[in-house]
Amino acid sequence: MAAPPGLPPPEELLKRADEMLRELEKGPWPSHVSELRKTRYPLHVYGVGLVARKSPWGPGTVRVKYVNTGVLSRWARDWVPNGGEETHFRVFHTPGKFWKTDFIRQIAKISKELGVGLIEIVGQTGAFVINLTKDKAEEMVDALREIGTDVGGSGDAIRALNACVGPALCEFALFDTLRWYAEFYKDKRINDAIATPGFPYKFKIKISGCPMDCARANRADVGFIGVWEGAPEVDQELLRKKIEAGEVDPKELAARCPSGAISWDGKELRIDGEKCKKSMECIRRAFPAIKPGKKIKIAVVVGGGVKGRFGPKLGNFIGYLGPNDTQKAIDLVFKAIEPWNNEAMPKCRLGDYIMIAGIENFLKKADIKLEGMPEMAKTGDEVPYAVLSKEEREEYLNLVKELKGRA
Amino acid sequence: MAAPPGLPPPEELLKRADEMLRELEKGPWPSHVSELRKTRYPLHVYGVGLVARKSPWGPGTVRVKYVNTGVLSRWARDWVPNGGEETHFRVFHTPGKFWKTDFIRQIAKISKELGVGLIEIVGQTGAFVINLTKDKAEEMVDALREIGTDVGGSGDAIRALNACVGPALCEFALFDTLRWYAEFYKDKRINDAIATPGFPYKFKIKISGCPMDCARANRADVGFIGVWEGAPEVDQELLRKKIEAGEVDPKELAARCPSGAISWDGKELRIDGEKCKKSMECIRRAFPAIKPGKKIKIAVVVGGGVKGRFGPKLGNFIGYLGPNDTQKAIDLVFKAIEPWNNEAMPKCRLGDYIMIAGIENFLKKADIKLEGMPEMAKTGDEVPYAVLSKEEREEYLNLVKELKGRA
Amino acid sequence: MTSDPKAARLQKVFPVDLDKFLPDIIKRNYGKWVDRKFHGAGIIEHISETGERVFTVKVAMPPNARLSADTLEKFADIADRLGIGALRATMAGNLEFLTDSLEKALKIKEEVESMGFPVGGWGPAMWGINSCTAFLTCTTSVVDSPSITKALGDVLKPYFTGEEKLPAKLRIYVSGCPAMCAGGTAIDIAIVGQWGAPPIIREEALSYCLPPPKALEKIAESQVFLVQICPTGALSLRREGGRVKLTLIPEKCINCARCKENCDAFDYDPENVGVAILVGGKMSNTGRGPRLGRVLIPWLPAIPPRYEEIVAVVKRVIDVWREHAQPGERLAEFIDRIGWQRFVGLVGLEKVHAVYQRIPDHVRTFMYFRQRYEAWRRLREGI
Amino acid sequence: MTSDPKAARLQKVFPVDLDKFLPDIIKRNYGKWVDRKFHGAGIIEHISETGERVFTVKVAMPPNARLSADTLEKFADIADRLGIGALRATMAGNLEFLTDSLEKALKIKEEVESMGFPVGGWGPAMWGINSCTAFLTCTTSVVDSPSITKALGDVLKPYFTGEEKLPAKLRIYVSGCPAMCAGGTAIDIAIVGQWGAPPIIREEALSYCLPPPKALEKIAESQVFLVQICPTGALSLRREGGRVKLTLIPEKCINCARCKENCDAFDYDPENVGVAILVGGKMSNTGRGPRLGRVLIPWLPAIPPRYEEIVAVVKRVIDVWREHAQPGERLAEFIDRIGWQRFVGLVGLEKVHAVYQRIPDHVRTFMYFRQRYEAWRRLREGI
Ligand code: SRM
Ligand code: SRM
Ligand code: SRM
Ligand code: SRM
Ligand code: SF4
Ligand code: SF4
Ligand code: SF4
Ligand code: SF4
Ligand code: SF4
Ligand code: SF4
Ligand code: SF4
Ligand code: SF4
After folding, report:
1. ipTM score over 0.90, yes or no
2. pTM higher than 0.90, yes or no?
3. What is the CATH number of domain A233-291?
4. What local confidence, expressed as pLDDT, does residue A262 receive?
């Protein structure tokens, strides 16, 4: 990108960059600049970008043998005085993103010795990011593999998986999100699709233990979200106690239930399982007197994403798996990938492809069949005119031939 | 339109036309062909059209002095053997479409003497249609005016009004639809806009006495529909009797209320006026034990239509008038017409124009203010990127300047 | 302005005198109706607070409500003999006889039925079939709605007369072309004629629809009326030397027929022509309120005189509705309740909707750029 | 395949051994959590059926969760001293200390706060601000999200720490460009960098993004990658003699930045650049369920280091929500309940939404040709 117009001369630029950086160290919120100062990150580049109001970084290259994803490298733009460079790895996080202190110290050591001493402790996809110096790239990969993790997940590949902390720390967890996380990674096909890009675009898999969706699975290319069948479970005894203690207001529970499933007759709280939309509203207010139901199912959503070709989209719900169906879940991912990988234009996310193909056609092509699949993509048009090909018209005619017989 | 390919020679064509017509006289449903046979309508033309599967009529012309709307004339296409012609008038219907027998006989006489003895007793807009012979056009107009009605309502003009039968025959009528019908017609501006086309497109006004919308006002350019405020009125005494008599099932009333406004505690039926959406479901089932409420309002809907530029649309609800606000209603019609007439492209219906202008902008331009106007046309976009002009951007900046002061 | 006495015609004579046009019994009880009773299909007793009663007898008219003056006079005779000396045309093209006792009403019923005009409608019944004029008088029609209406009526009559019961009101609108003069699509079942393929332009007839050559020279291409009315930009005007050429991009055409409505030079091949059948519209605020119908099948051939394909689909829709709907449930509410897919499956047209999933790419882009409707179940609705 | 030992790298080392990576106390109580208590902002006590307890202390990280190795080591020391020898990064970029008693938890809080890292979040509070990396490392950024995040955090900290109460959870995502790496728009408040005006093409840099001339010759214009990725057809390739020229039709451009994401030759003028602010999105199925955020204001300048315009709008949105929302009501549900117009009015940005009513004509045509969303109240909702 070109130098922005009206950039001051180098010295002045650096001075103003420095002022800008200092300003960002003030105030009560933790400052990234203060942290960066403790590292060998080329802070002036960042400062110059702020003054120029333009990203100071241009694409760089670094090749790491047999590491085809997870490596990103930048050069400072030619208008940044004194230049600078920046390279970083995306690194797989541990299950639940737990870092025992020995592991932290290993990471910190690697970062200081082979990098610039800077870590993004968790990226938005769920990896963590570690800066390095270009010439230490090969070493860094080995060091990370040594301590039990690795580099990967960028480009048109499966990205670092993400799963909420689930049963490791959360009362609401309906299934073992971390075991799913592990099982997915262990699968050879997943490994290969992470290691080597080749899809039309990136592909993200996210796993949430319950409808709170802390892992934002509903925005993934394929997401898994724990739910249950029917009504939440009510421990009437405990609930009564909570009500007496003033911890829970049963009228509020009924009023806040978005599906009108809860009724309170002054004595007992009843929940209509047919109506319940698993909003977790009653549960979070009255836990553990009200808990999710026992019959657990994993809702599958496909085609979410923040942008892609056709703009922001949430996932499309396509049915359920069981809480132990990890293998089926992995199969499903690759079934979903197949028609997309074969047919989609470059830079179409799965959700874009689904919009192009039509979700029903997509599900057919992908040969996906799930329990509780919702019916029908779309109702008919509101517009009664259309241009139709001869073939289409003949198809309609044929369809009706049979009816004619019946009439 | 050109002759369809593969048309048989004239004689054969006429023969097949005749067979087709005969077939349409069979069967239990009243036959238009049988009726047409009793008239001087050129039936062979219609028959040939059916065989050719193409309209046999092309545009014709007839000029009637100072009658600029409501006159339509056709010539048979050149491929119709023996040719033929057809001319008809659209004629204003009486209030409630009541035809006393003397009036019927006058119509029939005019039809036989100056026309071909054929009448469409009511057209879909609400006029009736009378066929004539071209050379009697001037006479026919005078004859119709003589008996108290007139020709009009076609082209880019206000069309024949339509109102449901209302208080003349209907228990549900919430206001005097027929008086509205009459008052509208008496207005000079309405007269002129019916008499002389000049708008971007046609313009229809429809009036329904209650939410049943028998006059399909919700599909008009401007529609008026009687509603009430709050809950329907319940005569508990009478209701109890109806329940005892088995005529009314209170549980069904509650279940069929689409807004969940009705509760039945085994003794008394209660209706939550806040919730009631005026579906008429309880009223039609338990009338007159349940009746519309007493505080009557006239809901105004604008911009409906079957097609226009952007396809089918129902009206947009824009607020209420009072049951006696006929003058305000007529003013409102012309307020709505003004920006449309000034700005719309040809062949944009009011609804299309509203879509182009945005309904809020439209209401502002039209200077329409009503009681109970709903808020806000649209919520914000889901897409966070857009191309914006410098002016727009400055506008946003200015808007926020004030907020900055407050923060 | 002018001294021509005919100029007085610009001041219309509107039939607005309620006193003159309303029958006396109606005037006496105007706005005083307190109750009504239904006496079988087609007959309503209206009860006034004055104690008077008016019985209405609803009679089906031939397609497009076409009557000969002869028949109309015969009806007037009956109205004088057995009624209160008045009829009324309903909004929707039936004819109502008015009388003051049930016996007379039943007598009227007998007489009109013997003339071949069935009595029926109201409540859970077919209230009628509305037809536009089409091949009877209309230049833009592509199929003939009156004969389609006749073919349907012959089969559906028992639903009108009440011999066969329906779950709720049913009305059918049959329009000969996308102008939809029969009343549009906001009705239980709508049948709409359409061209099937993009229009054919008859160069030789085009000049009638264009401004005179001199004027045309001065107008920007995009401002030419014919170019403007096409909502999709499928029509464009190119100047080639001194001549102009109107071109149509078939990929952009949506077959809306607006060009045709405004210029006779647009033609079609009867081979391509057909009807779309829409279901589940309504105007009334009952149930879940007014809504537009939805395309059940976007194209079927329209083959006179019996239109078997159309009749078969309509019949099938009604059968499915009759079999599965709850009492009082209009087709719209029924479809809403069971869901479109299930409905389409029950009718036996599962495969049809595949077409709705095809949206041209450029359309989709913009559609999803702005407020987007959610095409598929989200988690919340799904679980 | 190859004998290079480095080829083994294609088999990734995934940290999947739960036994190895989970702290012991977590393993012992895995899936056995039966209750939890909130101890002020940022501290949760998790109660296991085994009787054991784990306390988590949620600590805000600097923008973009950037820590120096030094600080990380200091945290490890604290975790060893006062915790169970483990930390965890949350999904959303905070750091959780784990310990086994409330006192220790409070001690941790004290220590990290003295280091300048506030403890907070959970329940009706700000849970954090997520920032992408932007000017720190990213080539496609148009505004710098980490510094915007800092400016916001400085003002909003009391909502995080619980000093000031909120009606419900609040999270803010700040993304430096339309790629929205901070997590998109399905969150309470989303701030998204955008170009403002259509991209400028730097001819001189274009060749890097096009196939080599020989290959290019053989590809149809529309099949060229850069042409294909533009979702609106704003980009087209024209061959002029031997040379190719990429042209951009500004009217078609929606500023989606896909061209830029794929080719460094697309440039912009910082003058035009700004952010859109979206509100009312969420992921969670609470309330009325997940939904995308809506544009509250489509453009504001992003002026470092204090970004006053952005901060003012965010602050104002929060104030309005605080003042008018019911307890427990997230911004999304609050806006739903009071209606967009009223919300926009309360914020003081009534005039802003006028822009949403402008839809280019061709768009509208198609949008309304297919399934259309209802833009304005229908009778049923109105009455
Ligand atoms: C590092 C990270 C931001 C961070 O600091 O947290 C990031 C950084 C970039 N993202 Fe992202 N994205 C990151 C999470 C996301 C997320 C969040 C998520 O995964 O939930 C999203 C939105 C979710 C989604 O995918 O729908 C996201 C949507 C994008 C997009 C838009 C994709 C689309 O469908 O349109 C792009 C553009 C592209 O791929 O062409 C993009 C592109 C980029 C690039 C590669 C742009 C570039 O080439 O400069 C950024 C590299 C910056 C750098 O120097 O590292 N990034 N990106 C996140 C990855 C770390 C990690 O693996 O944990
Ligand atoms: C006579 C009538 C059909 C009938 O037999 O009932 C009719 C007949 C024609 N209509 Fe209509 N329309 C008739 C009611 C309607 C209705 C029903 C209504 O008003 O509720 C509609 C739909 C409602 C609406 O306006 O939204 C209707 C929507 C159209 C349209 C589409 C308008 C649009 O917005 O796109 C056209 C096409 C046009 O105007 O260019 C049209 C055009 C025509 C033309 C003028 C086409 C033509 O030039 O040949 C037809 C003349 C046929 C003829 O020979 O008389 N007619 N037309 C109806 C008028 C009689 C009356 O005044 O009562
Ligand atoms: C006569 C007529 C109005 C007129 O001015 O001409 C009419 C008059 C009445 N309508 Fe209607 N409706 C008339 C066309 C309509 C239309 C328009 C249409 O069919 O195109 C509608 C709206 C379209 C729709 O179907 O959504 C309409 C929707 C209703 C409804 C709602 C039906 C439903 O189930 O949704 C009722 C209530 C009912 O049937 O229970 C109703 C009920 C009534 C009743 C029977 C009131 C009652 O239940 O006591 C009115 C009787 C007055 C009378 O005896 O004359 N009227 N009614 C129309 C007769 C049409 C016909 O020949 O059959
Ligand atoms: C730790 C974390 C998951 C993880 O694996 O990292 C998490 C864990 C929990 N979430 Fe979450 N949520 C986490 C991010 C999210 C996200 C994602 C995000 O913010 O980007 C969401 C969905 C996005 C959204 O806001 O819609 C999310 C929506 C919820 C909700 C719903 C809030 C609401 O009012 O709609 C709850 C329930 C509540 O707060 O009452 C919840 C509740 C919980 C609780 C506190 C369960 C409870 O109420 O007992 C979990 C505590 C486990 C623990 O102690 O570790 N969690 N939670 C994430 C912490 C983020 C942070 O640093 O603040
Ligand atoms: S998604 Fe559910 S199970 Fe997972 S951390 Fe959030 S609240 Fe717990
Ligand atoms: S989980 Fe939500 S929807 Fe279900 S009963 Fe509880 S509050 Fe209602
Ligand atoms: S709209 Fe209402 S008042 Fe008018 S006729 Fe129909 S039911 Fe009666
Ligand atoms: S009118 Fe309709 S919405 Fe109102 S209470 Fe009766 S049934 Fe319910
Ligand atoms: S719908 Fe078409 S065919 Fe029927 S009258 Fe109207 S314009 Fe003519
Ligand atoms: S039918 Fe409609 S879309 Fe097609 S060319 Fe004519 S006006 Fe344009
Ligand atoms: S949102 Fe844009 S600026 Fe931020 S990291 Fe992603 S690509 Fe870079
Ligand atoms: S910003 Fe988007 S719409 Fe504009 S040219 Fe680039 S890819 Fe096309």
Report:
1. no
2. no
3. 3.30.70.20
4. 96
